[in-house]
Amino acid sequence: MTDGRTTVLVADDQDLVRGSFRVLLDTAPDLVTVGEAGTGTEAVRLAAELRPDVVLMDVQMPEMDGIEATRRICAAPDGTSRVLILTTFDLDDYVYAGLRAGASGFLLKNTPPADLLDAVRVVAAGEALLAPTVTRRLIAEFVARPRPAAAASTSLAALTARERDVLTLITRGLSNAEIAAHLFLSPATVKTHIGRLFDKLGARDRAQLVITGYESGLVTPARPSEG
């Protein structure tokens, strides 16, 4: 952060789009744009140099697409930036690939300005964020995608029974307060369990915990209703 403000790097191949996002972000007193990238390669370089709190990442960019750029930014050993992917395309493959690459959130470019600013704040705070339509598509993707039978025992072997309970509720979308009430725990205890889940599962944030919960078979989502 800079002077208490959340720092943001804007990565998009269109000058007008980058400029518009920059103006919007800089109008918020708690946010500040620290750089702009016009290619995926430049986004990776600037993320390493500037170490922004959040990277607003377009999917389709020259030299390197936003998914690969996200993967490299999130995989950097000393990287601390969280990635919020913005795209005009509401497609399953982008959502799944982006989250697997380490993205903390996924929003469409037609998201209202106020919601986009809130999204940056949510992601900077370490929460997972998905647009409602994207969430439904993501669940559908997990329903359709077969999971290896051994996945659960492999990825969750190190977890205690209580940690599994917490992960299950995170995967189902419950907030910390709701998890605390459901399991009759204090909010501080819930935070401690979540911190241990991050460490044991190598997750950066809640989005990655949700991915693990579904892929391990710990939670099996109901199929979305037709229509």
Automatic annotation (TrEMBL):
Keywords: DNA-binding, Phosphoprotein, Transcription, Transcription regulation. Residues 152-217 form the HTH luxR-type domain. GO terms for biological process: phosphorelay signal transduction system; regulation of DNA-templated transcription. GO terms for molecular function: DNA binding. Residues 7-124 form the Response regulatory domain. Pfam families: GerE, Response_reg. InterPro entries: CheY-like_superfamily (IPR011006), NreC/VraR/RcsB-like_REC (IPR058245), Sig_transdc_resp-reg_C-effctor (IPR016032), Sig_transdc_resp-reg_receiver (IPR001789), Tscrpt_reg_LuxR_C (IPR000792), WalR-like (IPR039420). PROSITE patterns: HTH_LUXR_1, HTH_LUXR_2, RESPONSE_REGULATORY. The modification 4-aspartylphosphate is found at D58. This is DNA-binding response regulator. It comes from Actinocatenispora rupis. The lineage of its organism: Bacteria, Bacillati, Actinomycetota, Actinomycetes, Micromonosporales.
